[in-house]
Design brief:
Number of domains: 3
CATH topology of the largest domain: Nucleotidyltransferase, domain 5
Structural class: alpha/beta
Order of helices and strands: HEHHEEEEEHEHHEHEEEHHHHEHHEHH
Shape: globular
Oligomer: single chain
Strand content: 15-25%
Largest sheet: 5 strands, mixed
CATH architecture of the largest domain: 2-Layer Sandwich
Length: 405
């Protein structure tokens, strides 16, 4: 029995330290009594962990100053504040055509964001890694911090990732580009890997329309569809990281593949233009249907163009089938359309909502994300912060600060 005591005690201490940091982030100055109330931990536990977190550099203890003439019985309450600048994290989104990096402090406040267009596919791994280095260096420079202050980095990729942060082996592109190993070796950072849609779900629940929602689907719906799913507040992965992968849509009547809203808005907009040469779509694309974009279709539809509206009606019907099939499987409270297409997709929601009961007995609430196309890198920041909180007793901002002096 004694062999399990030490590890069990240490595990409990880690959990308690994580709870303390969660309670203190953004709370300003707090006392031991206030921490006892918010964490339901004993005074002895709170003070002991606070002392350790002060030693490690996570917290600062403030001096107590009494106003002249005031009398307070007993010892003054000890006051602590979470040091937002104790260290930093990076959130990186490696997309098919661009890479976005956010540098954030320990409160999750973005200090800089850098996006660089870059077609990552069909490019040698070393070249991809060099581009990633330049973007990270630029983001750190703009944030005014050095690489030595980074405690954790989270990277979002468009591939299934299991609970251990490993990409599904059938993904040849990511097997040839071991981003976690490359970044760790080049910088010495602790690197986490996660599916991009999963990170979008974390971001949406953290700072988006899904705050406080425990049963949630967030779908990246631009050129391709991908979903992140939370059940009872827990991000679901499945055995190999494939939970939320949407390949089954190939077999769904009226859907047939995983292409997204932007893809079909442009494709069906071109088809509508062929049937109606007087459409405003022709003017918007300069008479070249191949130049028509999804944004042009949404713009024309908003101005009342019949051909554009017809194209978007088809998109809404398809998305109702997609959302209905996934909602039947996982029964979320809220379904959020996210990514760069989210702002435009808001115009589709009434038609999707109207048709949704045809495809599921459990239609969820619908919303479009307000977090923009930086949602994945923002979710990566949240992912990195979660890791830091869970491992606070093993990480030492104090040692980082010594290196910076």
């Amino acid at each position: 029995m004694l062999t399990g005591t030490a590890p069990s005690t240490q595990l409990v201490r880690r959990v308690n330290a994580s709870a303390m940091l969660k309670a203190m982030r953004g709370a300003g100055v707090v006392t031991g009594t206030e921490l006892m109330a918010s964490t339901e931990l004993s005074r002895a536990t709170v003070i002991s962990i606070c002392d350790e977190l002060v030693r490690l550099g996570w917290l600062q203890e403030l001096e107590n100053q009494r106003v002249a003439g005031d009398y307070v019985k007993g010892r003054p309450a000890r006051r602590f504040v979470f040091d937002n600048n104790a260290a930093h994290v990076l959130g990186i989104d490696i997309g098919a055509t661009k890479i976005t990096t956010i540098v954030a402090d320990m409160a999750g406040t973005p200090l800089s964001q850098v996006t660089m267009p870059f077609r990552t596919y069909n490019v040698p791994a070393d070249e991809r890694a060099d581009v990633l280095d330049r973007i990270a260096a630029d983001a750190l420079h703009k944030a005014g911090i050095t690489a030595d202050s980074v405690l954790a980095v989270s990277v979002g990729v468009a591939a299934p990732v299991n609970r251990q942060g490993e990409v599904l082996t059938v993904q040849e592109f990511w097997r040839s580009f071991d981003v976690r190993r490359i970044v760790a070796e080049r910088h010495g950072w602790h690197v986490l890997l996660e599916n991009d849609a999963n990170l979008a779900a974390l971001a949406e629940r953290w700072q988006g329309t899904a705050q406080g929602v425990d049963n949630l689907v967030v779908m990246l719906a631009g050129d391709r569809l991908g979903s992140g799913i939370l059940e009872s507040g827990r991000l679901l992965h499945g055995q190999l990281g494939g939970f939320g992968e949407l390949g089954y849509l190939d077999n769904v009547d009226g859907v047939g593949d995983t292409y997204g809203i932007a893809h079909y808005a442009a494709l069906w907009g071109r088809e509508a233009l062929k049937d109606d040469a007087t459409s405003a779509l022709g003017t918007l694309c300069g008479g070249d249907p191949s130049a028509l974009t999804a944004g042009m279709v949404f713009t024309a539809a908003a101005d009342g163009d019949h051909a554009a509206q017809s194209a978007l009606d088809r998109v809404a019907h398809r998305m109702a089938r997609v959302i209905g099939s996934l909602s039947t499987l996982v029964n979320p409270e809220l379904f959020v359309i996210a990514g760069g297409v989210a702002a435009s997709a808001n115009a589709l929601l009434p038609a999707i909502e109207k048709q949704l009961p045809e495809f599921t007995f459990t239609p969820p609430r619908l919303a479009s994300s307000t977090l923009g196309d930086g949602i994945v890198s923002l979710g990566a920041v949240r992912h990195a912060l979660d890791y830091v909180e869970e491992n606070a007793l093993d990480l030492s901002p104090a040692s980082l600060n010594k290196q910076l002096r």
